[in-house]
Amino acid sequence: MINVIYSNVSQHFFIKDFKKINIKSCTYFINYLLKINLISLKTYTKYIKENTELKYNLPIYLNKSLLLFECKTSNLDEKIYLNFFSIIGISEKDNKTQVVFNNGDYFFIDISLDKVKKQMSKCNKIIEYLNMVEKTY
Hints:
By secondary structure, this protein is of the alpha+beta class. The protein has 3 helices and 9 strands. The strands form 2 sheets. The protein has a 6-stranded antiparallel sheet with strand order 3-2-1-6-5-4, with helices on both faces. It has a 3-stranded antiparallel sheet with strand order 7-8-9, with no helix packed on it.
């Protein structure tokens, strides 16, 4: 299971099962994941905006084990996406947020705990919406 997708000026990778795997870029990799799930980012974004109150910085639902949300740091060259489904805990240490994953791995990000909680609440709203759609059809 993918836990983190990370990108900055010099390196791009994702972490799966304690292994660091290099990629071309975050955007390239996320578009690839969307394509294999038969949807484009533009279509997904439009659909979520039309059907929920969420309007910006949307989490990306790919399947029942992968829901990515972006954590924007103060470093504009850095992109970090976390998998909501693999997170078992978050806490704040030294003005950084520690994210603990279900495989025992952890990751520190240079943003406030409140920002991470806000993104996680967006994930919950998307899950609620998708569950409602699933029950309707």
